[in-house]
Amino acid sequence: MKIVNARLRGREGLHRIELDGARIAAIVAQPALADAGDGLDAAGNLVVPPFVEPHIHLDATLTAGEPAWNMSGTLFEGIERWAERKALVTHEDTKTRARKAIDMLVEHGIQHVRTHVDVTDPTLAALKAMLEVREETRHLIDLQIVAFPQEGIESYQGGRELMAEAIALGADVVGGIPHFENTREQGVSSIKFLMDLAERSGCLVDVHCDETDDPQSRFLEVLAEEARVRDMGERVTASHTTAMGSWDNAYCSKLFRLLKLSRINFVSCPTESIHLQGRFDTFPKRRGLTRVAELDRAGLNVCFGQDSIVDPWYPLGNGNILRILEAGLHICHMLGYADLQRALDLVTGHSARTLQLGERYGLEVGRPANLLILSAASDYELLRSQGHALVSIRHGEVLMRRTPARIERYS
Ligand SMILES: [Zn+2]
């Protein structure tokens, strides 16, 4: 297969991309072709590697309102409502909902996904279901499973054992939730425990860290220091860190030195955080997001994720990561010209680095033949036009094709 009239980010002119089975065989500069012949015509639009979803909860998707809606809109009521729904979770129920959500992601050009699966359940029912889904959907996505202790490691009975069992069963990433543990000390010891587990097992780390407006929640420094001392930074991710939006500048100026030394990654879920946080404020009302632009300006790796699709924490969502990108750029004051020129980094390359995809990702000869044809010729124009992935190619074959809406004008 070959794609012609492809525009590539960071390169001048148009290109022809040749695929040899499941690999990219050649990328060659070529003047515009009026006739694409037997090639796929990108029509001068961007061709990029697949979008990445670095933070979602597929085991909880499509459960909002079952059995009750989250009326306060807070994170903590979400955890309560989920605990009620969790009692009804079955193997098939989890698989059916996860497959539906994965279809939504695929239809928006996502081919790499990291999902957090709740392991604070003595039966580990959701985890066992998701391990099967990971195998059954390999033709659609590469799925990383995080062993995520929704109700705590130290403050949930048997929490440590469940985490270890989840990793032994085949989870790819060690999770955590230190700000939800009952005490500061438990939060700190949970991080030491999960970093030990990751070091022993060779797994990656992705911690729900300081997902609160409480300015006293300061577990990011603990996670970053553990990553620095163990030289594991690139393999470690801090998700949310929304409390950073409430920390003062004096503290952050010291903290950022450590963050840079640690080299850890960051995920922000802007639609979910703007919805869940700020709930205890009247006015002025905080945005409840981490310092995305500041992390980015400091050279740290930061990306955007969806977090939820129709679950106790967030009632909307359709799998479209570009919707998250647009909202995030607004909320984080990142609509400056320079940011708009490279906006797709936040849902492609930066996310791939968070997932440590390495040479399994990217538009380069020899890498997997996974790519998207988009509906616009630049990052800026894709955002402005609220564009889409029009074609998704995986393992050298067309996985999804979208026909844009057609408008008929009569005057
Ligand atoms: Zn999450």
TrEMBL record:
Pfam families: Amidohydro_3. GO terms for molecular function: cytosine deaminase activity; isoguanine deaminase activity; metal ion binding. CDD domains: Bact_CD. One of its GO terms (biological process) is cytosine catabolic process. The keyword Hydrolase applies. Keywords: Hydrolase, Metal-binding. Residues 40-386 form the Amidohydrolase domain. InterPro entries: Amidohydro_3, Metal-dep_hydrolase_composite, Metal_Hydrolase, Metallo-hydrolase_Enzymes. Transmembrane segments: none annotated. NCBIfam families: PRK07572.1 (NF005748), PRK09230.1 (NF006685). This is Cytosine deaminase.
